[in-house]
Amino acid sequence: MDVRPTPFRRFHAVRPSAIPFPLAVLVSLVVFLTPASGVPSAPPGTDKVVHVGVFVLLTVTGLLMVAGARSPRPAPDRRDASPTHRGRGPRRLLLLGLLCYAFVAEVLQGLLPLGRSADWADALANLAGIALGAGVFLLFGPRRPAGGDLAAAHPAEDGAGADRA
């Protein structure tokens, strides 16, 4: 059987863990960029709860997506590529992106003609949501096996992980 790599082997089925995060991003865009006329009236403080909740959702789904991705095998000559360090880079990048988004969302609310205003308390609520989401993920998220390779503990959906020794 010929198993030469082809350009099309890279395009396989989407991992189920990769689906919720883009949906959460779309929900957040709708929530944060809805014009003031479309925002329902609510008791005081509800806005902060919504901000925290949206960023908890973004953080948990984003971290689940990153945890579900197979990390590449480290180069043998790299000293920092031990199994305990694998996967931290994507998580850090995701969290950095969410931190930026927490502030950009507020700035956009103030700059765009939505009839809404930027509020530093909302930005702090966004940051609290990121911290809470990261805590929820650490407490209840998938655990890495002793070797540190999550993909080895859970065989890939496309069967590519079956040939690992």
Explain how this protein is built.
The chain has a domain at 16-35 and 46-68 and 85-142. The protein has five helices and no strands. Helix 1 (20-33) packs antiparallel against helix 2 and helix 3 packs antiparallel against helix 4. Helices cover 52% and strands 0% of the residues. By secondary structure, it is mostly helical.
Summarize this structure briefly.
This is VanZ like family protein. With 165 residues, the protein is an all-alpha fold.
Features:
VanZ like family protein; 52% helix; membrane; 165 residues; transmembrane helix; mainly alpha
Oligomeric state, counting identical vs distinct chains: single chain
**Terminal residue distance:** 20 Å
Task: Bin the strand percentage.
Answer: under 5%
Counting helices, strands and paired strands, the structural category is mainly alpha
Helix content: 40-55%
Write the layout of secondary structure elements.
Blueprint: H1 20-33, H2 46-68, H3 88-111, H4 120-140, H5 150-153
Organism: Actinoalloteichus caeruleus DSM 43889
Transmembrane segments: 48-69, 93-111, 123-140
Protein name: VanZ like family protein
